[in-house]
Design goal:
The structure is a single chain. Helix content is about 60%, strand content about 0%. It contains eight helices and no strands. The longest helix is centred in the N-terminal third of the chain and has 17 residues, at about 5-20. Helix 7 crosses helix 8 (about 105-115). By secondary structure, the protein is mostly helical.
């Protein structure tokens, strides 16, 4: 399958889900999740990094953001919610709090926004 064909297939599938007005959790799971269409068509970290630079990826992120603006209560009915504890320095917490305030959102929503994006391996420290 060519790059253009893969992107068209992903975009078509994302648009179908978006038009169906699925909740954001379902949209994320089916498109960007561990077993979603993007991971199926771009199985390596290198391929994912290249896909992240495309207009298709930007449009998917916009659709995801619009779906997240809707009521999140409906999303929690479809898939169990998990809680994680993240240890971070006070200065980073204060920075996140200020950024959330600037965006007029909660720290939770801000962190989810940051987590639903792919990250390049060069920005992830390795374990000692």
């Amino acid at each position: 399958m060519t790059e253009a064909t893969s992107q068209k297939e992903i975009h078509r599938f994302a648009e179908q889900l978006y038009i169906q007005k699925v909740d954001w959790v379902t949209f994320f799971r089916e498109i960007l999740g561990a077993n979603g269409i993007v991971r199926q068509l771009y199985p390596t970290r290198q391929h994912l990094a290249e896909f992240e630079k495309t207009e298709t990826y930007a449009e998917i992120q916009q659709m995801l953001t619009r779906l997240r603006e809707k009521d999140v209560a409906a999303a929690s009915d479809q898939e169990p919610t998990r809680v994680i504890t993240v240890r971070l320095p006070k200065s980073l917490h204060e920075s996140l709090r200020a950024e959330a305030h600037d965006h007029r959102t909660s720290i939770n929503k801000l962190c989810i926004s940051k987590l639903v994006r792919f990250i390049d391996n060069q920005f992830i420290p390795t374990e000692p």
